[in-house]
Each structure stands twice: as structure tokens, then as C-alpha cells.
Design goal:
The complex is a heterodimer of chains A (134) and B (290). With 134 residues, chain A is an alpha/beta fold. Chain A is 44% helix and 22% strand. Chain A has a six-stranded mixed sheet with strand order 1-2-3-4-5-6. Chain B has ten helices and five strands; from the N terminus they run ααααααββαβαβαβα. In chain B, 30% of the residues are buried. Classes of the chains: A alpha/beta (134), B alpha/beta (290).
Chain lengths: 134, 290
């Protein structure tokens, strides 16, 4: 899906993988949030319609948005604020955000300035999240 | 002043050249006694080479424009010579006292050579003595500097080794890491442990980490915050952190420091911590059926 600086892929029935690209500009936060939520809603609406047609009922399963941090060596307060806002926004449309592949340097830096529980969940990777049964 | 020191220097240089054979022989003999033979710190040829080099460097300094100038290249060369000599002797297990005694012996030998020359006046002898005592004091300082540098390097190397052995992160099961912390936790050590642990989680793809504090004697406010940060960083990487073996005094300290442990899983012992990690991973360990 074409969102500037981001690559959004649907994986499985109603889960999504969000990979930030090098040209991601988080200063365009409002535009990015609108684009992401819009894409997620469209994809979920399509899935719900298909599920309804197939099963005769709507699916109310909470979707997951996996945010891939593999390329993010450092997370500063600005980037953390972006992740936090994105997690809160997608939660409003019943999507849970899970950050995966967080680098040791990023976790080290983030743990130093973070004082509250983040709005997003974390996992080693997608399979790690599924394995833990959460 | 430079003119006078130059005269003192040239007179000393002349004296040195006249008696170089006996001076060299005396200091070489003492060198063999202190560092050669059974002491086995320097070889016989090495001692001879060192003596020759010392006299050459001393002669070069005495013949320089201002032998008192401790910024001159000749002075620097002599300083470096003693610096290297002391490093070599200390590395081989020699004592700094012996080296200082040897330098004092060199000075005494030169003063005795001075007294053998009947042409040296009282004023010249006074100036030469002042010059020699100033010079050798500087050289002894250079030796002490080298000794301190060497000691510091040894202490640093030992500290690094201790750090390495003090954080034994072990993969006790597929995806389960244990980190027993022993001794006193200070901020720098906690940071090092945290860095090593996070890198290990990434490398081994660990799902759970059991941090055992049974061996921790003391904890202060700053360190307890670092500990919480460590747990938070582990959780951010997507692993479960379980703290075990919190001693009563540590528990009391954590509570009195108002440390929030609500998001931290704690268990009484390392064994309980491992059981909890296995439970979370869906692993069931049972005894062999009879």
C-alpha cells in the first residue's frame, strides 16, 4: 500500500505488517496517521464483508499491526512519541500495535527515558508474539 | 643562565668522555647484579646495550644547546629511554625500587667520576652536582610515571576481566537466559550487564530472561532504577524478564526507595523463576517415568 515512507502489508486474515522506510518523515505525523488508519479500515472492511458473506456473521477479532523496528538503531523521544501516537490511534479502530525486532541499542535508549507503560506491545518477532499466545 | 648551563654541560661531557670506560663498566656491573643473573630480568647483552645507550643519550644532552631545558629533544629522548627501560623491567616482574636504586647508583657513579678529576673547581663541582641532581630527579619521576601507567593498565585489564566473568549470561534452555548477578551492583556495572544482556537476547532470540539477585549484597536508589530500566529494556525487546532471589534487605531497600515493581515478575528463587519461564513458554518438565 502506498504511504510515503512506509510499507504496509496485510499478513494473514486481519493482521498487518508496517515497515518504515528510510524516507519516513515523522514530522508529517497527521498525514501518516490518516493514511495508515484509512488503509487499515479499508482492508478490515473488505475482510469483514468477505467473512460475513462466507459465515453469515461479522468478525470482531482485534487486528494486529506489527511495526518492524529492525532498521531503527535508536529510538529518541520524538520517535517514541510517534510510536505512542500511532499505537493510540490504531487502538481507536480496534487494532493492537506490536513493535517487533527492537534493536538492543534502541531498547537501551528507550528504557532510559521512558517512564510510563507504552501504548504498544512488544515481541521478538511475529512468530514470537503468536508463540506466547497473547 | 643558558650560557652557564652550557658550560656545565660541556665540562661534564668532557669528563664523561675521559672516563667513559670506567663509568660504563661500573654501571654495567651494577646492572648485571640488579637485573641479570638469577634475577633474570634482562639478558647480559641487553644490559650492555642499555648502558651504552644511556651514556650516548646523556652525552647528547650534555652537548646540547641548553642541557637544563627539559623540553629539548635530547632530554625527551633520555626520559623515554628510562620510561621504556622501566616498562620492560616491570613487565618482566621487576621491582620499581630496584630501578630507582639503579638510577641513584648511576648518579653516584657520575659524581664519583667528578671527584676523581682534580682539575674541577669547587664552583664547577657545585654547578655539576646541582645539574646532575635535577636531571636524575626528573628521570626518577619518569620511571615512577611509567610504573603508574603500567599499574593502571594492569588494574584496567583486571577490571575488564572481572566484568567479563561477573556477567555470566547462560542459555539454560532454548530461548531462556539466566543472569546470576553476584557482588555489589553499581551504575557502571548495571549498564554493562544491561548492554551484554540485550545483545545476547538479540543474538539468541531469547523469549525469557531470569535475573537472579541472590548474590547481590547492596542496592542503592540509582542502581534500583537501573535494574528497573534493565527489566523494561528486556520487555521492550519482546522478552519476559523475571527477577529472582531478592534478599529481604534488598526488598526493603526497593520498597523504601518507592520503586514500582508492579510490572516486574518476581519469584523467590532461581528455580521458581525457571519454572515460571517454562510455564510461559508452554514447556512442561517432568521426572522420568519409573
Amino acid at each position: 500500500m502506498a504511504i510515503p515512507g512506509l510499507h504496509l502489508t496485510q499478513i494473514g486474515s486481519s493482521d498487518f505488517l508496517l515497515e518504515p522506510l528510510r524516507n519516513l518523515n515523522i514530522r508529517d505525523q497527521d498525514l501518516l496517521l490518516e493514511s495508515i488508519t484509512s488503509h487499515l479500515q479499508q482492508a478490515r472492511a473488505y475482510d469483514s464483508t468477505r467473512a460475513f458473506a462466507r459465515l453469515g456473521s461479522e468478525s470482531f477479532r482485534v487486528s494486529r499491526l506489527y511495526y518492524d523496528l529492525a532498521q531503527q538503531a535508536l529510538i529518541d523521544p520524538v520517535y517514541y512519541a510517534w510510536l505512542d501516537t500511532l499505537a493510540r490511534t490504531v487502538r481507536a479502530i480496534n487494532v493492537k500495535m506490536i513493535c517487533i525486532h527492537m534493536q538492543p541499542t534502541a531498547a537501551f535508549a528507550l528504557a532510559r527515558f521512558m517512564h510510563e507503560i507504552p501504548a504498544f506491545e512488544t515481541a521478538l518477532d511475529i512468530s514470537g508474539w503468536k508463540k506466547s499466545g497473547q | 643562565m643558558a650560557q652557564q648551563s652550557n658550560t656545565t654541560g660541556s665540562k661534564l661531557a668532557k669528563l664523561l668522555k675521559l672516563q667513559i670506560g670506567s663509568i660504563s663498566e661500573t654501571i654495567e656491573k651494577e646492572g648485571q647484579t640488579l637485573f641479570g643473573g638469577n634475577n633474570n630480568l634482562l639478558g647480559s647483552d641487553e644490559i650492555t646495550d642499555f648502558c651504552i645507550e644511556f651514556l650516548q643519550l646523556l652525552a647528547a644532552l650534555l652537548e646540547s644547546k641548553d642541557p637544563h631545558d627539559d623540553a629539548s629533544p635530547q632530554f625527551h629522548a633520555l626520559e623515554m629511554y628510562f620510561n621504556n627501560l622501566s616498562k620492560q623491567i616491570l613487565v618482566r616482574g621487576g621491582r620499581v625500587e630496584d630501578l630507582v636504586r639503579y638510577i641513584q647508583f648511576m648518579q653516584r657513579t657520575l659524581i664519583e667520576a667528578l671527584s676523581n678529576d682534580k682539575q674541577v673547581t669547587v664552583e664547577d663541582a657545585r654547578a655539576m652536582l646541582l645539574f646532575l641532581s635535577g636531571l636524575f630527579n626528573e628521570l626518577i619521576l619518569a620511571v615512577f610515571q611509567a610504573y603508574l601507567d603500567e599499574k593502571e593498565r594492569t588494574v584496567n585489564a583486571q577490571e575488564a576481566e572481572l566484568r567479563e566473568t561477573a556477567t555470566p549470561i547462560t542459555e539454560i534452555w532454548d530461548g531462556v537466559l539466566t543472569l546470576p548477578i553476584i557482588g555489589t551492583l553499581d551504575s557502571s556495572r548495571t549498564m554493562l550487564v544491561m548492554e551484554a544482556l540485550l545483545n545476547r537476547i538479540a543474538k539468541d532470540h531469547a523469549s525469557a530472561v531470569v535475573i537472579d539477585l541472590t548474590g547481590v549484597k547492596n542496592i542503592d536508589s540509582q542502581v534500583s532504577h537501573h535494574l528497573i530500566q534493565m527489566v523494561r529494556a528486556v520487555q521492550l525487546m519482546g522478552s519476559d524478564a523475571i527477577i529472582t532471589g531478592i534478599r529481604p534487605e534488598i526488598a526493603r531497600a526497593l520498597i523504601s526507595l518507592n520503586i514500582d515493581l508492579s510490572n516486574v515478575t518476581t519469584r523467590a528463587s532461581l528455580s521458581d523463576g525457571l519454572k515460571e519461564a517454562f510455564r510461559r513458554m508452554g514447556i512442561h518438565v517432568s521426572g522420568k517415568a519409573a
